[in-house]
Amino acid sequence: MRILFVCSAGMSSAIVVNALKKEAEKNGIEMEVLAVSTQEFGEEVKKGWDAAMVAPQVRHRFDWLKKEAEAASVPCDLIPPQAYTPLGGPLLFQKVKELVG
Amino acid sequence: MDRVVNFLDRYFSGPVARLAEQRHLRAIRDGVISALPFIIIGSFFLIIAFPPVPADWAIAQWAKEHVLEILIPYRLTMFIMSLYIAYGIGHNLAKSYNVDPLAGAQIAIAAYLLTIAPKVMDGVGYVLPMTNLGGHGLFVAMLSSIFAVEILRICKQKNITIKMPEQVPPSLIRSFEALIPVAIVIVLMTMITVVLGLDLHSLVDKLVAPLVQAGDSLPGILIPVFLITFFWAFGIHGVSIVGTIARPLWEVYLAKNAEAVAAGETIPHVAPETFYQWFIWIGGSGATLGLVICMLFFSQSKYSRTLGRTAVVPGIFNINEPVIFGVPIVLNPTMIIPFVLTPLITATLSYFATVLGFVNPTYIMPPWTLPAPIGAYLATGGDWRAVILVFINIAISFVVYFPFFKMYEKKILEQEKMEETVGA
Fold it and tell me: Do B325 and A85 lie within an 8 Å CB cutoff?
């Protein structure tokens, strides 16, 4: 499963990415996760991702990020704030599973 | 209280945040950000030229003798930052219109350069005065880049181009496509600068002078500080919203401070972005490093201790989303109070410390992920008193957060107890 994360600078979501990876491992799913900034997102999302997750603090950019994702036919959704913490792995994992379907 | 928070989120912070995503504002923001690596690296040559060591040391002597050469990299990067920014704005604005970004960047550069009249120097030939390519010219760079890309975009959308037969290769078609918009931009800009003899830079200078002065005052610092934490309180990246509007001004201060240092003059401005970064946002927006210390050493709940342990390392490098969403501070009235209050206090203290000459104003831009004491030391050109100010501000942050943290932790402890009894 390949999941693309996007936040302001691609830094904070990197922390959450680790929580997600750990949770996926527990569930026996191999997951490749990358965190990018909103500026990089448009180019990166074209490179064959299974889902794109938008960090809550850039939700004011969600509309155009989603458009960029849709143009590449990648499902895209917001990360709930409660899941966007180092301890939010399980909730985040669930959300990702829902999105990928 | 919860109702107030929800109301503000729906009718204020949300709409304003979306406003900041307006196409031109976004292009300016991304254009300025794209130039930051050149500003960061360029500014470091100022430290080499003016090393923070006693004047009789060999390295200080060497730097003094070679100051002109040492500053050449600075002169060709940070000192002419607006040239880089114009390119970035042109690129990003064109991209947002789905117009060839390279054409956008190039036409923006042409329009901007045409605001500056070259001079003839004996024995040298034509020279371009560099001052207006720097912080001084930033507002003109923003306006001329937008103007040029708009012309390019309108020509493309209204199909005002020279049509070529189909057999012509695409790369050739592209270069012909740009002919009409480039002609319009060059002729119009030439009219302004050469025919009418208007100096756009001094004109815009006069227009923005009140703004430049206001942004450097105590209220001019406290308002963005308040707004940044205010947005974060709703979980929206405050710096990315407020910075969209304020960053050009912050870069102008930084550029002028650096220019003053390079020229051996008194540093004029208190409030470049580096001031906010190194004295106020210690541990991230909301100055949360003090809160992380509370969680690490003074918490009784399991949750806070675990969160403190995972948040401390990112916090040292000024990344605090784990704190903002983990504690959480977002939509949590108890924790929003110190989150807004702490930076206002430390900003006021740091403002007076700078104005009264207790610490040097900042003029170098270290990358924002350095630990604050190191960043503040570098940003002030090696002023150890800046390091002391950072530690004082961390102490203030700890003291302000502590009572609110304890108040909030009571709730968490109750919850943990309840879960335990239910679990057992």
Answer: yes
Instruction: Report the alpha-carbon distance of residue B402 to residue B400 in Å, rounded.
Output: 6
Angle (CA) B221-B223-B226 rounded to 5° is: 110
In angstroms, the CA B258 to CA B265 distance is: 10
To the query of whether residue A7 is one of the catalytic residues in this protein, the response is yes
As a CATH number, domain A2-100 is: 3.40.50.2300
C-beta separation of B288 from B339 below 8 A: yes
CA separation for the pair B389, B346 (Å, rounded): 9
| Closest-approach residue (CA) in chain A for B17 | A60
* Active-site entry in A3, A4, A7, A53: A7
Helix (H, G, I), strand (E, B) or coil at B98: coil
Rounded Cα distance between B249 and B217, Å, is: 13
Q: How far is A29 from chain B (nearest CA, A)?
A: 24
**Cα(B361)–Cα(B357) distance, rounded to whole angstroms?**
8
| Option in B20, B30, B321 nearest A12 (CB) | B321
The Cα–Cα gap between B284 and B272 comes to 17
ipTM of this complex: 0.78
Residues on chain A touching B319 (C-beta within 8 angstroms): 11-12, 15
Cβ separation A56–B14 shorter than 8 A: no
| Residues B221/B271, Cβ–Cβ less than 8 Å | yes
Tens digit of each residue's pLDDT, chain B (424 residues): 667 767 777 777 777 777 778 899 989 989 999 999 999 999 999 999 998 888 888 888 998 899 999 999 999 999 999 999 999 999 999 999 989 999 999 999 999 999 998 999 988 899 999 989 998 899 999 999 999 999 999 998 888 777 777 777 777 777 777 889 999 999 999 999 999 988 999 999 899 999 999 999 999 999 999 999 998 988 888 888 888 889 999 999 999 999 999 999 999 999 999 999 999 999 999 999 999 999 999 999 988 998 899 889 989 999 888 899 888 898 888 999 999 999 999 999 999 999 999 999 999 999 988 999 999 999 999 999 999 999 999 999 999 999 999 999 998 888 888 877 765 5
C-beta separation of A86 from A15 below 8 A: yes
- Indicate yes or no: CB of A88 within 8 angstroms of CB of B18: no
Q: Which residues of A touch B310 (CB under 8 A)?
A: 15, 86-87
Chain B segment 186-245 residues within 8 A of A by beta carbon are 232, 235-237, 239-241
Torsion angles phi and psi, residue A51, rounded to 5? -160, 155
- Per domain, the residue ranges of chain B are 25-206, 219-423
**Token pair belonging to A63:** 């509309």
| Of the candidates B251, B245, B246, the residue with the CA atom closest to the CA atom of residue B272 | B251
Distance, in Å, from the CA atom of B413 to the CA atom of B222, rounded to the nearest integer, reads 35
Q: Which residue has the tokens 């430049």?
A: B212
Question: What are the angstrom distances between the C-alpha of B152 and each of A7, B27, B164, B289, B414?
Answer: 31, 15, 18, 47, 63
**Domain spans of chain A, in order of start:** 2-100
